[in-house]
Amino acid sequence: MVLRIFIFLVALGAAGGAAWLSSRNSMQDTVTNAENEPAPMVDVLVASREIAGGEMLAAEQLRWDSWPEANVHDQFIIRTVRPDAMQALSGTFVRTGFAKAEPIRESRLAHANQNLLSNRITAGMRAAAVKVSAESAAGGFILPGDRVDVIQTVKASGDLPRNTSRIIIANARVLAIDQNVAQTEDGTALGKTATLELRPHEAELIMAAEATGQLSLALRAVSDQAETATVMEPAETILVRRGTERSAVSVK
To answer: How many domains does the chain have?
Structure first.
């Protein structure tokens, strides 16, 4: 009788162990399957190439990229939510540039019926236009967002024995080239007017300097840029006579 009870207990223990091992293996298989299951993906609208600030957006500059759903920001544009986004956003202006493959955010775009330029001017600053050519604007390689030095050149005259050039404003930010940026195939922007962001007294200086000489823009390196422009102090002021008119010109 005792032997039968012992055998029964052994059999019961073996059955319990087998059940536990089976349950454990089943749980491990479930965890493994969950780990191997791919994360849910969604299509996000991104830039197909680098897009500069001030450009007009076109459908060919955009594409859909698959992103893990867990990494999608609220401001990203998702294909299932806005399948017509490429066409809907065509014709808008880019406030700040996008890198290649960067998700498009509508908060960084402006529609054509909005005044894009005024939205880009820092509070307290002014937008001042300067007449330029390819030769006087770093060969046409100046783009919105670049920093430049404004150089005034005064030609020789009776009271000025030689042509004189000097930097009148350093580190001015370019807001636009003409009203819109017209880019060539190699990425240069050609225009007749550069719009600079300046403080009020700097804008006055630009207007006076343009009336007494020719202005040119010198492109600054990205590593040589500051937050605000600087008026360069003149070392000397001379009187320039043009016919019956006289004007004071500051030179170094």
So the answer is: 2
